[in-house]
Specification:
The complex is a heterotrimer. Helix content of chain A is 67%, strand content 0%. In chain A, 49% of the residues are buried. Chain A is mostly helical. The chains are: A mainly alpha, B mainly alpha, C mainly alpha.
Amino acid sequence: MTIEDEPTTATTGAGGIGYDDHVEESRLAQRAADKWMIPGTVLMGTAILGVFGLPLFLRGLFLQRRAQLGGLSVRPTIVTLIGYMVMLDGALNTFGWAIDLFASHTYMSRIFLPTWGNMFDAGYFWHYNELAVGGAGAPGEKAWEVLGIFVVFPMRIAACIGFLQMKRWGHQWMIVTCWTGMLMWMGYVANMTMYADIRFTGVVFPVLGWWIYDIFYITPFVAIPYLHTVNREIFTD
Amino acid sequence: MSETSTDDLPLGTPKEFRRLHTIIRRVCYVLLFGLVVEGALTFPLLAIWYGVPELTPAEVCDELQKVMYSDDTRECETHDLDSPPFGGTAEAQNQTTAEDIWKVQPTPLYPRVGFRELVENKREREAEEGG
Amino acid sequence: MIQQDREKRRALILLQVVIYGYLLVMFLIQLRLWSQRGW
């Protein structure tokens, strides 16, 4: 914590308050904003309830921006956006892959995944639940799911938490997780292309459907240039 | 820590990269809205295309299985907790009806499911069975 | 300092070109297969 010192002119907005007060007020403002953004992101992570989550999230963003304009030291908007977006990205992916890995014989899984698969990517339709472990049977698919669920997405969630807290390790982990996100994308798409017949034959919207649907999961790609050009000093130990 | 920057640069953004960061921020907004809208529209789209509400979700499951394994007698059964990956045999583990051209890159032979075609399928099949 | 930034910017642009280029190539390959096989 800071030492009680003579007040420094640290803010432009509320002239003449002490540094400690400034830090405290900033912290509270940030907390107030996150109180909206976290539930918002959780709801958005469920996909179906996403439209209810978005307004909550935007409200939190608005509160944060207002605090920022008022001179408080809150997280930069872009850090907030990238942090929550990567988390949302991870959550949405995790949901689908988790039910395919662990709940493949439930009604939910068998209604949602093969229908989605039949429309966009028959990897989740073709011989569904024929594998001894169940779920999608497309060549290589289970391997990517295991990599995602057990390695990449947990790390991604951890990275986002640290990143949103403006921690140095958060920034570093975020760099790593975005690069691994890139690896996942590139490997996954290559695998799909190798077995394109399985993935796209008989699909309602072949090729275009999958790309239009999945291109929105490209946040890690977009975040990489930011992570490498941001001034690292803003992330603390 | 908070600087009164005359440039009005966001915290952490060096001057040289201001435009880059602005672009990235805007792209993030687009992706965010895209993901949310997409997430919201997915279930309704799938439901309507595959025959809900005329078919119940369980019936959609049945009809889809019939297409998946080219077998009109196939159905979606309930399974208890002792199913893959935790135990038991997979639903279709010993199936013999699926139609594919088997080579190193297999080609499925099932037909495309058109808009609400599953409803048609069910109706036709029941007509055949009835008549 | 400025030289470093310039090099960094160039490297990042190259990275973007490579990764989006890769995705585009994969997409085009899939489109080509689609037109050939008529899925």
